[in-house]
């Protein structure tokens, strides 16, 4: 997406106002817009200033692909989890009345 268009969709504030709200020097934002590209760091700052998720806005501005922020896969998440975290999750599942079917994902349960 064109970065000028992105900023216009993000806020109705002036460029000066948006820069100030995001803690960016207005001259820097004006310069970047005149070149047609806001830096990734400033996209993040602007996103946060306006209550948007920075990852989503980095996708909209072309810095990231959607697959870059979709999250870690289940297998990778399990490898990252500590034994305590895994045991806590098993305990939570057993306590919710669905312990008889451990092969069912929580999202598939009624």
Topology overview:
Blueprint: H1 3-10, H2 15-22, H3 26-35, H4 40-49, H5 54-60, H6 74-80, H7 83-98
Helix pairs in contact: 2-3, 2-4, 4-5
Question: What labels would you give this structure?
Answer:
7 helices; 2 domains; 110 residues; mainly alpha; 434 Repressor (Amino-terminal Domain)
Structural class: mainly alpha
Discrete helix count: 7
**How many whole angstroms does the radius of gyration measure?**
21 Å
> Based on the structure given, which CATH architecture of the largest domain is correct?
Orthogonal Bundle
Oligomeric state as shown:
single chain
Largest sheet: none
pLDDT averaged over residues: 88
Cα distance spanning the termini: 40 Å
Q: Tell the overall outline.
A: elongated
CATH topology of the largest domain: 434 Repressor (Amino-terminal Domain)
Order of helices and strands: HHHHHHH
State which percent range the strand residues make up: under 5%
Low-confidence stretches: none
Given this structure, which CATH class of the largest domain is correct? Mainly Alpha
Helix content: 55-70%
Total domain modules: 2
Task: Describe the structure in brief.
This protein has 110 residues and is mainly α. The protein has helices at residues 3-10, 15-22, 26-35, 40-49, 54-60, 74-80, 83-98.
Structure description:
There is one protein chain. The chain is mostly helical. It has two domains: about 5-70, 434 Repressor (Amino-terminal Domain); about 70-100. It contains seven helices and no strands. Helix 2 (about 15-20) crosses helix 3, helix 2 (about 15-20) packs across helix 4 and helix 4 (about 40-50) crosses helix 5 (about 55-60). The relative contact order is 0.10. The mean pLDDT is about 90.
